[in-house]
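Regression test case RT-17, inverse folding.

Input:
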């Protein structure tokens, strides 16, 4: 009985892992994107100039023209360039923008929200009550960046009603956070005043806009009063336009041992590590050596990729989605590199 249970558990794990693998996988050759299957056999020749991968490596959009479902292998016309994903009323929607308009599309619900304005980006801001035992999310707004670089505050509903019927520049907005990185409100400059909103999206303070530094919405004199405005300790501003910076390289040394060895099975090409970096080798030709670079690309998640420098080619290295024991790149293009 115990053996049977162990076999069933092992089968369940293997089946779950196999289900994570993708039917189709994008690749790049000579600066053009194509599509291959899970055996690294070319399905679509490299012909696309741009790619956006989203929904946990489930979809790939090319040139704003076509979308491939990497799980099922299906394809369908794109609605423009994929921009980002966000949650609206508990459902995941994807923002697409073309030359004329923007649309929010849920593939899961087969629902489309056509937008009256053209957006270049959107994201959701959650607001928290930090006085609760555990910080509790109270409300959310969608920040929409329009094509003219102005910003709208939108309600998180399918109608996307404007919360404040005013277009702002990014230097007219400041998020307010408590010391645990939870957003508790925001401030905007409007009609000669500074308006302060709390986690329930109610106005808690309105003051005449003071003269501050050129690029500072809230001068030091106002920053010092934030705690009293929100009746919270350790309240500070959260940089509205700051971007995080990280190291974009990664190391494959340990993964080489676990996944791609110097004696690969059923694989004509493999990776090796040398003192100067990484090489792509051939098990059939000892003279075949290509310098490669390992780094992350964002689509918008961070995915491991391996770049073949001399032909501006690239393939993904993601064990969760593909067979990492193989070089996931069409073999005919590797041979042409020789």
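Golden output:
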């Amino acid at each position: 009985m115990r053996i049977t249970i162990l076999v069933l558990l092992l089968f369940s794990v293997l089946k779950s892992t196999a289900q994570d693998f993708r039917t189709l996988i994008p690749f790049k050759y000579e600066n053009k994107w194509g599509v291959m299957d899970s055996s690294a056999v070319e399905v679509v020749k490299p012909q696309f100039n741009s790619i956006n991968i989203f929904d946990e490596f489930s979809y790939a959009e090319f040139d704003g023209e076509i979308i491939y479902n990497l799980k099922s292998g299906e394809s369908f016309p794109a609605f423009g360039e994929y921009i980002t994903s966000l949650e609206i009323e508990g459902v995941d929607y994807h923002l697409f923008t073309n030359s004329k308009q923007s649309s929010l599309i849920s593939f899961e619900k087969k629902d489309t929200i056509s937008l009256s304005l053209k957006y270049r980006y959107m994201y959701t801001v959650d607001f928290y009550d930090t006085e609760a035992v555990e910080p509790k999310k109270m409300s959310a707004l969608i920040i929409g960046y329009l094509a003219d670089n102005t910003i709208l505050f939108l309600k998180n509903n399918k109608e996307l009603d404007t919360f404040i019927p005013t277009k702002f520049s990014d230097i007219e907005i400041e998020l307010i956070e408590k010391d645990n990185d939870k957003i508790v409100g925001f401030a905007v400059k409007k009609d000669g005043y500074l308006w302060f909103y709390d986690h329930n999206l109610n106005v808690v303070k309105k003051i005449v806009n003071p003269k501050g530094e050129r690029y500072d919405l809230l001068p030091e004199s106002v920053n010092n009063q934030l705690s009293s405005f929100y009746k919270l300790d350790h309240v500070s501003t959260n940089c509205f336009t700051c971007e995080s910076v990280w190291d974009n390289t990664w190391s494959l040394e340990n993964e080489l041992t676990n996944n791609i060895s110097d004696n690969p099975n059923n694989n004509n090409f493999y990776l090796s590590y040398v003192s100067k970096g990484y090489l792509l080798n051939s098990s059939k030709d000892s003279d075949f050596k290509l310098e490669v670079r390992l780094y992350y690309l964002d689509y918008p998640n961070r995915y491991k990729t391996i770049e073949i420098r001399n032909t501006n080619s690239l393939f993904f290295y993601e064990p969760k989605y593909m067979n990492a024991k193989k070089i996931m790149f069409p073999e005919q293009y590797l041979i042409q590199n020789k």
